[in-house]
C-alpha cells in the first residue's frame, strides 16, 4: 500500500482519463489512499446489523470479525479433482463418469493434466498482474464506455440502479471469440506481451473447453457433440481479469456477490499465492476452491443447466476479499452466441423444467441488475412444473 497524506477516503473516487467523458471508480484507488472503513456503496451488512452481530459476541470486535471470516471459509471440504491425463485413451470411461458426477453433485470441479501449457498459464497470470499493477492513470485509458455489457477496465459492472451495492472488485473484461467480436481498443498495450499472450491463451482454453464439454456430453448421452451443438457455432468466449484488492473490513462486503455464471462453461485460473477467495455453495456450506498450481477450476453455467434440464447444476459461488492481500483470478467464459435460443435438449428432457430463453436476454438481465444467486434461472422454471412451487425455494 502506498503511504498517503490526507484523510482516509469515505466514498468512491472517480478518475477520468484525458480526453474521455466517462470515468471509473476503482476499489484499488480507495485502498491506495488508505481507506479504513468500507464506504456504504460497498456494504452488504449495514452498520447496525454489524453492531448487533458484534453485541452478540463477547469477544472484541476484531476477534468477532476474524471468527466470522473463518466461518465464511467453511470446513475441510473441497471441490472434486479430476485428472485428465489419458482422457482420450485408457481412462476415458472413468474420467467421463467422474465429470458427470461432479457436474450433477457439485457443478464445480478442478482439472489437472488438462493439456494447456503450464508456462502459458503462468505467462497469462503474469501479464494480467502487470496490467493490474500499472498506475490507475494508465489503466484509465481502457475504461469501458458506459452502457450494457461494456468491455474494458471497470469496477461497477451493472447499468441498473445507481445505488445497487457494489462488489469489492476491479476488472478488465474482454470479448475474445469469435475474433470479429474483439475490440482491440480495450486490449492493453502494456505489458508488451499482453496481446499475444491473451490471443494464444484464448485459443488453448477454447480447445480445452470443447474437450471438457465433450466429456460432459458423453456423461449424458453417447454423443460427444451434444452440448456443443446445442450451444451452436460459433461459440463466444469472454475473459475477465478480476482483481480483488485487500479490504479493511472483509466481513461486510463481497468481492463478487453470490451468483451462478450465465454462459455454458467457465474455466478459472487463480493466482497461486493468493488466499482463498472463491467459494462454492454446496448444500448449506460455502466450500473454498483453493488455488492449486497448474489447475483450472471448471464450473457448469446456466446454459448447461437449462440444456440438461437441471441434471448438471450451475452452482452459486461468490468471492470474499482478504484483509491482508489482494487476489487475481482469470475466468474464461464459453457462451452461446447472443441470438441462440436455449431450452432443455429433447433427448434429455421428457418433462422440461425450463422454458426457452434467448441467451442475449439472459445476459442483458445479468448486466442490468447484477448477480443475485440463482434468481434468473429460477424465473425460467415452467409454472406448471412442480419445482415452480414455491418459486423462492433454493
Ligand atoms: C466470475 C467469478 C470467480 C473469481 O467472474 O464469474 O465467479 O474467483 N469469478 O474471480
Ligand atoms: Ni462466477
From TrEMBL:
Could you confirm whether the keyword Transmembrane helix appears in this record? no
Keywords, comma-separated and alphabetical: Iron, Metal-binding, Oxidoreductase
Give the signal peptide as a residue range, or say none if absent: none
**Superkingdom to which the source organism belongs:** Eukaryota
Question: Pfam families of this UniProt entry?
Answer: 2OG-FeII_Oxy, DIOX_N
List, for all copies, the residue spans of the domain called Fe2OG dioxygenase. Answer: 235-336
Looking up PROSITE patterns in the UniProt record yields:
FE2OG_OXY
One example of the protein's molecular function in GO is: oxidoreductase activity
Residue spans crossing the bilayer = none
| Alphabetical list of InterPro entries matching this protein | DIOX_N, IPNS-like_FE2OG_OXY, IPNS-like_sf, Oxoglu/Fe-dep_dioxygenase_dom, Plant_2OG-oxidoreductases
PANTHER family for this protein: OXOGLUTARATE/IRON-DEPENDENT DIOXYGENASE
* Family classification: Belongs to the iron/ascorbate-dependent oxidoreductase family.
The name on file for this protein is Fe2OG dioxygenase domain-containing protein
Originating species: Adiantum capillus-veneris
Lineage summary:
Eukaryota, Viridiplantae, Streptophyta, Embryophyta, Tracheophyta
